[in-house]
Amino acid sequence: MKVKVGVNGYGTIGKRVAYAVTKQDDMELTGVTKTKPDFEAYRAKELGIPVYAASEEFLSRFEKAGFEVAGTLSDLLEEVDVIVDATPGGMGAKNKVLYEKAGVKAIFQGGEKATTAEVSFVAQANYEKALGKDYVRVVSCNTTGLTRTLSAIQEYIDYVYAVMIRRAADPNDAKRGPVNAITPSVTVPSHHGPDVQTVIPINIETSAFVVPTTLMHVHSIMVELKKPVEAKDVVDIFENTTRVLLFEKEKGFDSTAQLIELARDLHREWNNLYEIAVWKESISVRGNRLFYIQAVHQESDVVPENIDAIRAMFEMADKWESIRKTNESLGILK
Ligand SMILES: NC(=O)C1=CN([C@@H]2O[C@H](COP(=O)(O)OP(=O)(O)OC[C@H]3O[C@@H](n4cnc5c(N)ncnc54)[C@H](O)[C@@H]3O)[C@@H](O)[C@H]2O)C=CC1
Ligand SMILES: O=C(OP(=O)(O)O)[C@H](O)COP(=O)(O)O
């Protein structure tokens, strides 16, 4: 049996998740919703993806443009086993009543509060917690990045302090930036630390700044160690951690620009870099403190998590089988 998947909100995350669903042999993409017949709606149609109006109120826009939709969101909900909600942050919680009414399982994204779902999810850290669940939240791109590396070294962690340097906007966003400024999140901790704690139980504080770039987020991480570890052991751990890759400045990876260039060189769709990129030279231990620096491709690291969340919710595979299938299907390097 293939799980029928719908995507509500065909934007930055939604279109990538929809694509990833089409690459799975145990899932099928039933359709996606759009609020208007823009170029993304036409492109979806060209790809053979049924396009539904996101609600009745948007139907007239499609009618006016002569764009034939397959129905509305409520029609899509009748067809699917699970809906991936990738609408703008905060909207998923409001949509949840529709999903409950339709009796359809739902996945929410990191822009929703943890209380919207039964479990907050990062596959390699807590896949089992999502087994059989109806509502799962894939945490934000930054939280996913922090959780992937920190869960790998969890046994050594006494306390984590991390600073998030966040991209101002996604490349397709001409409204928000980049801006000529550095904008701090003045609430400390930023939401990222408490969000990591919804997935793994560690001590962590975070602060965050927005900077003028569209190319990835960067995290500067300091861990107070519970027990001694050497830098070379942490290198070994990360080398053996799925969805984490080590990069060397020595080899020309000076900045996020070269990481994105590598994703282009790999002919990754939308230059997705699903893996968290840790700078190898940055991994260092001084006294009882471990330091490292990593980069997160905000548009894509959560995509494989959505796919694994679907498998967990339908108990279609165990953790490592699901991660392996997802990795292989998306060309994730390890
Ligand atoms: N862009 C990013 O870096 C990341 C975003 N997220 C989270 O993913 C979620 C979606 O974010 P993005 O994809 O970046 O947003 P986006 O703005 O690129 O896409 C949202 C899509 O939903 C559509 N939409 C708006 N109102 C709608 C409605 N009533 N019904 C259905 N669709 C509607 C928009 O037209 C757009 O196509 C948010 O929770 C966000 O926090 C998570 C990880 C990374
Ligand atoms: O939704 C996201 O970015 P956005 O809200 O700035 O578009 C990304 O998940 C990164 O956000 P975060 O810094 O809240 O993890």
From TrEMBL:
What Gene Ontology cellular-component terms does the record carry? Answer: cytoplasm
Q: Could you tell me the keywords of this UniProt record?
A: Cytoplasm, Glycolysis, NAD, NADP, Oxidoreductase
Q: Where does D-glyceraldehyde 3-phosphate bind?
A: 140-142, 192-193
Q: State where the protein is found.
A: Cytoplasm
Please name the InterPro entries in this protein's record.
DapB_N, GlycerAld/Erythrose_P_DH, GlycerAld_3-P_DH_AS, GlycerAld_3-P_DH_cat, GlycerAld_3-P_DH_NAD(P)-bd, Glyceraldehyde-3-P_DH_2_arc, NAD(P)-bd_dom_sf
> CDD domains, per this entry?
GAPDH_II_C, GAPDH_II_N
Chief location category: cytoplasm
**Which parts of the sequence bind NAD(+)?**
12-13, 111, 167, 298
Describe the location of the Glyceraldehyde 3-phosphate dehydrogenase NAD(P) binding domain by residue ranges.
Answer: 3-141
**Enzyme class at the top of the EC tree:** oxidoreductase
What parts of the sequence cross the membrane? none
Q: List the active site.
A: 141
Reaction(s) catalysed (UniProt annotation): D-glyceraldehyde 3-phosphate + phosphate + NAD(+) = (2R)-3-phospho-glyceroyl phosphate + NADH + H(+); D-glyceraldehyde 3-phosphate + phosphate + NADP(+) = (2R)-3-phospho-glyceroyl phosphate + NADPH + H(+)
Q: Which EC numbers characterise this protein's activity in its record?
A: 1.2.1.59
- Pathway involvement of the protein, from the record: Carbohydrate degradation; glycolysis; pyruvate from D-glyceraldehyde 3-phosphate: step 1/5
Q: Which GO terms describe its molecular function?
A: 4-hydroxy-tetrahydrodipicolinate reductase; glyceraldehyde-3-phosphate dehydrogenase (NAD+) (phosphorylating) activity; glyceraldehyde-3-phosphate dehydrogenase (NADP+) (phosphorylating) activity; NAD binding; NADP binding
Q: Which GO BP terms apply?
A: glycolytic process; lysine biosynthetic process via diaminopimelate
Pfam families, per database record: DapB_N, Gp_dh_C
Q: How does it assemble?
A: Homotetramer.
The similarity annotation says:
Belongs to the glyceraldehyde-3-phosphate dehydrogenase family.
Q: What is this protein called?
A: Glyceraldehyde-3-phosphate dehydrogenase
Q: Which organism is it from?
A: Thermococcus celericrescens
Q: What is the lineage of its organism?
A: Archaea, Methanobacteriati, Methanobacteriota, Thermococci, Thermococcales
